[in-house]
Structures are given as C-alpha cells and as structure tokens.
Amino acid sequence: MAEWMGAVVAGAAPRRLWHRLEPPLPLAATAVPAGLFTFVLGFVIGVPGFFAYAEAAADTNNTWMLQNISRVAAKDANYLTTGPVAISVLTLFAFLFLTPLGLLTTYLITTGAVRAVSAMVDDPRGDPILSGVYWGTTSLIAGAKRTSRQRARERLEGPEVPDRLVTGESAGLTADYVVIASRRKPEWEAGAIILTSTDWYRLGTPIDADMENGLRTLYPLTKLDAVEVVRRGIYYELPRLSQRSMQKPQKAKG
Predict the structure, then answer these.
(1) If we measure between CA atoms, which residue out of 164, 162, 163, 161 comes closest to residue 242?
(2) Of 14, 46, 185, 203, which Cα lies nearest the Cα of 115?
(3) Mean pLDDT comparison of 8-17, 29-38, 105-114, highest-scoring range
(4) pLDDT value at position 56?
(5) 3-state secondary structure 107-126
(6) What average pLDDT is seen over the chain?
(7) Phi-psi bin for 98: left (phi > 0), alpha (psi -120 to 50), beta?
(8) Does residue 164 surpass a pLDDT of 80?
(9) How far apart are CA 138 and CA 135, in angstroms?
(10) Are strands 214-223 and 207-211 parallel, antiparallel or unpaired?
C-alpha cells in the first residue's frame, strides 16, 4: 500500500525518469489514479480558496456600494448596485485566471484530467512543468557536453584544411579511395551513398586516425558497379587524387 501511494504521488515525475523508480514504485500501473489525485487536489485547494476570494470580493464591492449610494440620486441608486452584481458574475473567472491560487487550481485540474485520460489510452505521462524543466535541463547539459567534446576534438584536429583523397591501398584499407578530412562530416555514416558527377560510391565505416598533422577522419569509398536505389545520397565532388606518399594512419585512442 505504501508503494502504491508513493507511486500516485511520484507519478508527477517526468516520464523519462520512471524507469529509475519502477520497481519498486508501480508508476505505470498507477498512472490513472495519479492523474485523478492531481485533479482532485485541484478542487481541494481551489474550492476553499475560491470561497475566500469571493467573500473578500463581495465585502469590497458592498463596502464601495454603501459608501457611494448616498452620493447619488435615488433614481440612480439602481444603476450603482447593478455594477457590483455584474462584476460578481465574473468572480470565478477572475479567481481562476487572475490569482496565483486560482492559476494553481486551474493547472492542477487541467493537467490532472489530461494525465488521467492519457493513461487510460496507454500514454501515461508526468507533470508537464516538471517534464519541461527536466527536458530543458538535460538538453542544456547534453549540449554543453557536446560542445566540450567538439572543442576538445578540434584541438586534436588542429586547423581545418581541405580534404585529401588517397587510394585505399595507400591508406591500408579495403576500399577504392579514402577521403581524409580534418573535420567530421555530418551525415557521412557507414552505408551512405556518395554521389559525384561521374561515379557513385558506398561509404564504409569512418575511422579516426592520428596522422602527421593531427587527428583525421578517414572515409573509405567503394565504387558501385551497378545503379542502386538510393535511400540516403550525399552529393560530393572528390578532390584531386593525392600523389604524395601517405603516413600509415594509426587508430586514435578512445
């Protein structure tokens, strides 16, 4: 029972964190009750808050009306009392959308209902704000790590220079040609088809290698003898074949 009750409360956690909490907490199994718990909590907080707000608003309106009714003619008194009555009709909306407690009430009721319905159709989820904060935080951390790794790699690669083209034999690889790049190429992954103005090549597995001028990425290219259905084609013009001897590449550590 304690685990079940804990799961109902912890169900507000971002969905991506649930795998760390279950087991022991049955978060997926209690997703519907968790949504309903939030929904009911909105009413528990909001109803007393609304009555307190409405009472205070009524007192304010009545005080204003009594202070000003003696200042107008008797025939205009009816108009003076109509204003507070008309404003009182909007009290609920003013509470829900113009007060902190009302906004919290609206949020809990709305998100609780959405979470309960989503769980009923096998799409359980946590609290939207907590999920958004978690996503934003993890995205910033991941972005910072990628930037740090990229900068560290660029220090090893040195200044960016034009690509070189050598034969697969001179590079010690089983390929027709090898493109030597001082920077990694986006989307150049194993299996991609490199389309040039004259021939098509299949890209092998890229290799990081320590060479005389720094860290380099080797892209093995094997010429296609027959036309294939291209699912992932990359247009690229091969540089002129290098005639100078090449230092035997060594795989980079790590």
Answers:
(1) 164
(2) 14
(3) 105-114
(4) 85
(5) HHHHHHHHHHHHHHCCCCCC
(6) 84
(7) alpha
(8) yes
(9) 5
(10) antiparallel
